Amino acid sequence: MAKPRWKAFPHPSKDYDYPGAALETAWARLHRGDCEPFPDAAGLEALVAAEPKLKPKTSLDEAAATLQDAWRAYHRGDFAQAVELGLSVGLLGVNVANKATNIYATYLEDDEAAKLALFQASVERAEALQATTRRLANAHYLHAQALGRYSQGISIAKALAQGLAGKVRASLEAALKIEPKHADAHIAFGTYHAEIIAKVGGMIGGLTYGASKDDGVKHFETALKLNPDSAITRVEYANALVMMFGNSKMKQAVSLYEAAAKASPADAMERLDVELAKAELED
Questions:
Q1: How much is the pTM?
Q2: Cys-Cys with 126: which of 58, 75, 143, 195 at CB 3.0–4.6 Å?
Q3: How far apart are CA 61 and CA 59, in angstroms?
Q4: Is pLDDT at 69 greater than 80 in this prediction?
Q5: What distances in angstroms separate CA 177 from CA 122, 140, 171, one per listed residue?
């Protein structure tokens, strides 16, 4: 697959480079939010033994090396390279390709049609991975993330009419069943509750979609406990509080934005999250 012609990450930094053994050393910190396992040959071997359809065309050693390079590209903000390398491995590279696509589309793609097409591509790849294995939490989480962002792009009303809310919820539930400590899935679930309530109201949202303010808050509080340094948890929590409770929670929301803006990013995605928090405070 040809490398996508995407915009460059606007905040390059040597702090986001993880050459050689540095990637594995920093892995727990970098993936505290999504619980993605480190892609070494031993881990891939165990996964392929359980799910033979995931077997790559290359050796597992080669696949592991390529996946590690894909994640290095992702963390430094070379999202196009991450997609190219990830997809070259086959199904084992779908998660890194989808995360790179989703983050790029969310933060750096300005063209709305192109943005929707990127999210649709992630959805299709995630569904192909889900059809092959039920073991990978991020096959479900990244599916929900892409569908959720796509829904925001077409308006929540149209998304609800197309039944996308139910698909998002199902994928988040699947992700959390596999990995209950998936902080990013808790963030997305909190946002799910907030957006449903904001668009259709608490009563209809509760009866039709199982949305509740209490559950929304619980998901965000859980995410903060699991990943206390996360800027995006605070940004999304702040947004959700305003959606669910209005101006009565504005003071708490501002405090969350301020804390997010002071966070120390460890990679390109986290830097984009911090810049988003700063932008929210300026509005």
A1: 0.95
A2: 143
A3: 5
A4: yes
A5: 21, 10, 10
Contact 92, 54 (CB under 8 A): yes
Query: Considering only 156-160, 167-171, 213-217, which range has the smallest mean pLDDT?
Result: 156-160
Band (pLDDT 50/70/90 cuts) for residue 161 is confident
Q: How far from 117 is each of 112, 140, 148, CA to CA, in Å?
A: 9, 19, 13
| Residue 101: exposure state from Cβ atoms within 10 A (0-12, 13-18, ≥19) | buried
Three-state secondary structure call for residue 163: coil
Going by C-alpha positions, the residue among 40, 58, 36, 60 that lies closest to residue 48 is 60
Structure tokens at 171: 């994928």
CA distance 13 to 281: 24
Angle at 13 between CA 274 and CA 77, to 5 degrees: 70
Please give the pLDDT value at position 205: 67
Residue 260 has pLDDT above 90, yes or no: yes
Is the separation of the CB atoms in 239 and 225 below 8 Å?
no
Q: What is the pLDDT of residue 210?
A: 79
Please give the torsion angle defined by the CA atoms of residues 166, 213, 250 and 152, in that order, rounded to the nearest 10 degrees.
0
Q: Does residue 68 contact residue 212 with C-beta atoms inside 8 Å?
A: no
CA distance 1 to 32: 30
Written as six digits, the tokens of 254 are 């501002």
Closest by alpha carbon to 115, among 126, 124, 104, 125? Answer: 104
Both tokens assigned to 9? 């990450």
Residue type, 9: F
What is the rounded CA–CA span in Å between residue 242 and residue 264?
Answer: 25
